[in-house]
Design a protein that fits this description.
- The structure holds two protein chains of two kinds.
- Chain A is mainly α.
- Chain A contains eleven helices and two strands.
- Chain A has one domain.
- Chain A has a two-stranded antiparallel sheet.
- The longest helix of chain A is centred in the C-terminal third of the chain and has 26 residues.
- Chain B has a domain of about 90 residues.
- Chain B is an all-alpha fold.
- Classes of the chains: A mainly alpha, B mainly alpha.
- At the A-B interface, helix 3, helix 4, helix 7, helix 9 and helix 10 of A face helix 1, helix 2, helix 4 and helix 5 of B.
């Protein structure tokens, strides 16, 4: 029992750590790990993955919110878009073939990776768009000397539209779509990468929480798998959230691009093998 | 006009400060509660020799086992020390973390009369409930 539990805990701590740092939630790593390493069925892995996204989101957000990395106002405005997308996705689920969605998702990830790779650093705006300023969506983050730098938020419409797409992906494919959320904030809305990552972490818990409840009610969550995964992921996420403030943005961006490429390959493979 | 804008900006900063204090408290409290229940469940299952490994192998072999019928049934089983019911209860507590956080924000914005954010958070909460009813959000 101890070797199985120890293995599950080790996998989960790693997934929670990377999920918290990248803003992707950890589900992306848990599903392949449980299927390939632990030889578990896909639906068990997906159920545990949803639980792990909730745990990563909650665990990492304790420190991110307290230390000011999460932009709560942006999160609450954009959650409207993701929830709208998720409901549309839930309604449309089954009408569009899965392979088409997976292929679209893979192409979007490739495009995100390209844009993120081209971007060298955070291009902060001192003042945001009028609507963003009215809603007080801008914020401050400390520079390397510890002095606060103000950033404005722009292109709320473009970011919101991409969040609807991210939500729809969640509803139709059962993925957290954290990568799309980070990309929308970082690239379209000029939110600094670390703030985008922390805010994405905060947001993904909401849709994943609702999904996890549905899975639990259906009996599609295996407790003997999900319980150690939830514990491990929480520990990993708590550790990851302590590291983020000291992480180098360039390395963080490189890691983010690598993960986007991996997801694109995985989704593309799933799509093409499902035709 | 400038005075009104300054007042609104200060109000937003105050709201932000309060949310930054209380949101982590809510998250930490519910996470700790879920963690304690999950550890209790794992401890309980380890007292039955071979039970965990047997369950793990059954899951690997694709055996679907729903651990409870109704919610009250789950609570009664957990109360009587059924390990898997205790763990299911822990997972349920965990999944309620984000929903509790949105509900808290809604109540907070109602109290501070920030109409725009009352509408945003109420919309999110309503959307989540509809999503759960449609049965496939996530």
């Amino acid at each position: 029992m101890l070797s199985i539990l120890g293995g599950l805990l080790a996998l989960s701590v790693g997934a929670g750590f990377i999920g918290a740092l990248s803003g992707l939630g950890g589900g992306v790593f848990i599903v392949p790990a449980l299927v390939i390493v632990a030889h578990l069925p896909m639906y068990v892995a997906v159920g545990a993955s949803l639980i792990s996204v909730v745990a990563t989101s909650a665990g990492a957000s304790v420190a991110f919110v307290r230390d000011g990395w999460t932009n709560l106002h942006i999160a609450m405005v954009l959650e409207c878009a993701t929830v709208t997308g998720a409901v549309i996705g839930a309604y449309l689920a089954g009408t569009i073939p899965d392979w088409v969605l997976e292929l679209l998702f893979a192409l979007m990830m490739l495009q995100s990776a390209y844009f993120s790779f081209r971007k060298k650093g955070d291009d902060l705006l001192p003042k945001g768009s009028p609507i963003a300023e009215r809603l007080h969506l801008g914020g401050e983050l400390p520079n390397p000397e510890g002095q606060p730098i103000r950033y404005g938020v722009t292109n709320l419409a473009g970011g919101g539209a991409l969040m609807v797409v991210a939500g729809a992906m969640s509803g139709m494919l059962g993925v957290g779509a954290g990568a799309v959320k980070v990309m929308a904030m970082d690239y379209l809305m000029h939110v600094p990468l670390k703030v985008s990552s922390a805010t994405s972490n905060f947001m993904i818990g909401v849709t994943a929480g609702a999904g996890a409840l549905v899975f639990l009610a259906r009996g599609d969550v295996s407790t003997v798998i999900a319980a150690p995964v939830a514990l491990g992921v929480t520990i990993g996420a708590l550790a990851g959230s302590r590291i983020l403030p000291y992480a180098d943005v360039q390395w963080l961006r490189l890691g983010f691009v690598s993960i986007l490429l991996l997801i694109a390959v995985e989704m593309g493979w799933r799509a093409l093998s499902g035709i | 006009m400038a005075r009104a804008e300054r007042y609104l900006s200060m109000q937003a900063q105050d709201e932000d400060r309060i949310l930054r204090v209380w949101t982590p408290v809510i998250l930490r409290t519910v996470l700790t509660a879920a963690g304690i229940v999950l550890i209790a469940g794992l401890a309980a299952i380890s007292t039955v020799p071979g039970e965990y490994v047997q369950r793990f192998r059954a899951v690997q072999d694709n055996a679907r086992v729903k651990d409870y019928g109704t919610f009250s049934d789950l609570v009664v089983r957990a109360w009587h020390g059924n390990p898997r019911s205790i763990m299911t209860l822990g997972l349920m507590i965990l999944t309620l973390v984000p929903l509790a956080r949105v509900a808290f924000c809604l109540m907070f914005f109602i109290k501070t009369r920030n109409l725009a954010f009352v509408l945003f958070t109420a919309y999110v909460l309503a959307g989540l409930i509809i999503g759960v009813m449609l049965g496939r959000i996530g």
